[in-house]
Amino acid sequence: MLGLRFSILAICLVLxxxxxxxxxxxxxxxxxNKTGTCQRVRDCPALKSISDKLINKIPLTNKEEILxxxxxxxxxxxTLCCEESxxxxxxxxxxxNESICGSFGEPKDxxxxxxxxxxxxxxxxxxxxxRFYCGGTLITSKFVLxxxxxxxxxxxxxxxxxxxxxxxxxxxxxxxxxxxxxxPVDVPIEKVFVHEGxxxxxxxxxxxxxxxxxxLKDPVQFxxxxxPICLPVSPDLQLESQTVKSLDVFGWDLMMQLNGYIPRWxxxxxxESTACNIQDEKKICIRNSESYRYRGDVGGxxxxxxxxxxxxxxxxxxxxxxxxxxxxxxxxxxxxDVSDFMGWITETIAKKD
Length: 353
What we know:
Layout: H1 2-18, E1 27-29, E2 35-39, H2 45-55, H3 62-70, E3 80-83, H4 88-95, E4 117-124, E5 129-138, E6 143-146, E7 155-160, E8 171-174, E9 177-180, E10 185-194, E11 199-201, E12 206-208, E13 212-216, H5 235-243, E14 246-249, E15 267-271, E16 283-288, E17 301-308, E18 311-320, E19 332-337, H6 342-349
Antiparallel strand pairs: 1-2, 2-3, 4-5, 4-7, 5-6, 6-13, 7-10, 8-9, 10-13, 11-12, 14-15, 14-17, 15-16, 16-19, 17-18, 18-19
C-alpha cells in the first residue's frame, strides 16, 4: 500500500509540474486533464466532502484519498482546481447546433449579423399593452439565456428575428434594392429557470448568480434571422472566453426606452476583476470603450469571435447585468461569466419537467 501511495503521489507531482495555469483565467485543468474551475474548498462539492470527513475524522475512500493528494492549486490564494462536470444530455443538445451556432454576416449586412439576439416581452399594466425591457440569447431551439434580474411575473413571451423596433415590416435599402424582412416571431414561454443562488440586494449593492434560462413553449425554426449563439462548451473555449481582450454587445438600448430602431454594437474591454472591485469569481469586469451611456440590454450577450471546429463564429462569454454600484469611472460595469455556469446551463436544459 505504501508503494502504491508513493506511485500516486509521484504521478501527481509530475502532472503538477507539467501543468501551467492561465494567469488571468478561472478555468483550469485537473490532474487527470479534465476541465475545472478555480474554487475555494467550500465551493467545490468533491473537495468539501473530503474536507468535512477530515474535520470529523471519518476515513476517506481510496478515490477520495487519491483526489486529496492530486488536487492542484490555482494561482489565486486559497483556491484549488475543482472539476466542472457538464450534464452529458445538455451538452449533447448544445453540440447539435455546432455547425450553425454563432453565425454572423458582414457588419454591412446587419439583418444577419446577430440572429441569436432575443427580446423579452412584458405586459405593462400602466400602458395596457406589451413592452420590451430585457434582452436574451437563443442557445437552442427551445431555450433562451438571460439575466435572472429579467425574470418577472409579467414576462409573457420572447421575440426572435427582430431587427428594427417600431417598424413593421422591417425594410432596408440595399444598394438600389429594397429588402423587406420576414416578420419577427413572438414565442410564448413554457417555464423559467432562475439560478437557485440568485440574490439581488440593492441595499448592500450585491447581485449574485445573475443568470436564468427560459424554456419556450414551442421550438423555433432556424433561418437567416433566427439562430443559436455558441456557448463555451469545450476547455479551449472556456479558457479563451475568460482571457479574450474585448467583447461585443448587441442590443436596442431598451433601458433608455428610445425605441432603438437600429441595434448598436459598442465594444467592451475585458478587465481584471479588481478594476471593478469584484469579489464574486463568477462575474466579469468590463469597460465600455466607446461611451458610458450605453451598456447594452440587460440579459443580452457579451460575445467575441473565435475559430472553432474549422469555422469562424461568435461565442457568448458574458451576460449584461444591471450594475447597481455607483462608480467614479462610469465606463466600468459588471457582467455574468457564462463559463462559470456551464454546468448549471447543461443540467437545466436537460430537464424534462
